[in-house]
């Protein structure tokens, strides 16, 4: 098992992301109490319904107000094992906080995310025992076979999980708590999926994602990094050696524009650029003093634009092919980007990149529609760096490893969102690879639902034990 220190030792001490400080630092005890005291503990709490993992929000807030911080974290983790990172990365403005009754009265809604961060951060501070270890001993050393089999009602199962992102981590953690063997295979050197490699640093730094992973591992989950399923391990091996397989593989490489001049220096896929910025010191990818264009209108495009502005770009312009209303990025995130000085050009379709005689990037030729800021026709936007944020490829190859697993027209693995069941009775799936790319909280909900479904299936009707709330 990897300790937190071992995981952190794989992270370079010098990383660009560390230049971007936490935007919403943790509450002090006094601030948390004051904010918790404002909650009305609504009987039909709309905030709960707005949370994809349906955390009992008024209960966890009440526990903070009464000084029971560990109990508060337990309430959160029972529904959302990754409540620590979700507290920091969830778009609460459109989820729980957006549903808080205070909004209807034009008063400041309860800062649910910051309270959740306070409770989970305090309760999982270094040295704390995993909170969900039950007194009968579900949390165990990986070789604690006897204890585990009693937890699993004599039906201890082995599950292989592909990818160490939020979907698999949640699924594996809840399975381990039920006494099953959960082994995650991750192709990268660091576990965590986009929580480690993609989330904007002002929400979550990589070391904080790793802190949470060490906590999940301490529940009894094993993670093998540097192992790519389909290459280092075959699907047929997993089907033979495990009782079930969970595919939490996320999405693939950044999609390219496929226009002239794209192959060459200065142009990056958005998630590849973010990963380099989060996990290393820039080597030729620094936006400092550069004129940056970010192509796309989704949340990834907005994140890159904000990050470049915060890292000292001379100017940052987002280039989007339709109107503002059609952008898939959240309005509150775009507002944040504008405050950092990001400009937006709409109705602009990239036509070709322009380079000088030495091959250096000099501009992007775009085709502008008539109802844009400028005159219709073609125009060249000067730039030194471009990030292309127009989506990521889907994971057909991994589906092909498992007979019966199919992919839909969008390239997503076909799975029942309630259980994760795919066309192969032994294979389950969840997270971005089945929904095409949503939020961390959706991936966590998927992983948890599959763990509960498997546990119910394996416990069978003779064992009516109810372990986790539904
Ligand atoms: C730039 C960016 C910013 C985002 N910001 C936010 C945010 O602020 N808030 C929010 O809630 N959501 C955000 N999201 C979305 C969120 O990160 C995802 O919804 C979530 O991480 C999906 O989790 P997952 O487990 O399905 O996949 P991932 O997090 O993508 O994890 C999949 C893992 O599987 C591994 N893998 C893939 N194939 C294999 C294989 N064959 N063998 C072994 N391992 C494999 C990958 O290396 C990866 O580690 C963001 C996404 C992006 C791209
Ligand atoms: S809706 Fe707002 S006030 Fe009501 S319980 Fe939820 S957080 Fe508290």
Report the average pLDDT across residues: 91
Which sequence of strands runs across the widest sheet? 3-2-1-4-13
Strand segment count: 13
- Computed CA radius of gyration, to the nearest angstrom: 23 Å
Ligands, ions, cofactors: flavin-adenine dinucleotide, iron/sulfur cluster
Helix content estimate: 25-40%
Approximately what portion of the residues adopt beta-strand conformation?
Answer: 5-15%
Largest sheet: 5 strands, parallel
> What is the terminal separation in angstroms?
30 Å
> Which ranges are low-confidence, i.e. pLDDT below 50, for 5 or more consecutive residues?
135-150, 464-470
- Class per helix and strand makeup: alpha/beta
Shape: globular
- What's the tally of helices? 19
Task: Describe the 3D structure.
- The chain has 470 residues and is an alpha/beta fold.
- It is 35% helix and 14% strand.
- The protein contains 19 helices and 13 strands.
- The protein has helices at 4-9, 29-37, 46-50, 57-65, 69-79, 83-89, 96-99, 112-123, 145-151, 166-177, 194-197, 206-217, 235-241, 270-279, 299-310, 331-339, 396-400, 432-435, 440-459, and strands at 158-162, 181-186, 222-225, 244-247, 267-269, 291-295, 315-319, 343-345, 348-355, 361-368, 377-382, 385-388, 427-429.
- Strands 3-2-1-4-13 form a five-stranded parallel sheet, sandwiched between helices.
- A hairpin with a 5-residue loop joins strand 9 and strand 10.
- Helix 4 (57-65) runs antiparallel to helix 5 (69-79) and helix 15 packs parallel to helix 16 (331-339).
- The two termini are 30 Å apart.
- The chain binds flavin-adenine dinucleotide and iron/sulfur cluster.
- Flavin-adenine dinucleotide binds next to helix 10, strand 2, helix 11, helix 14 and helix 15.
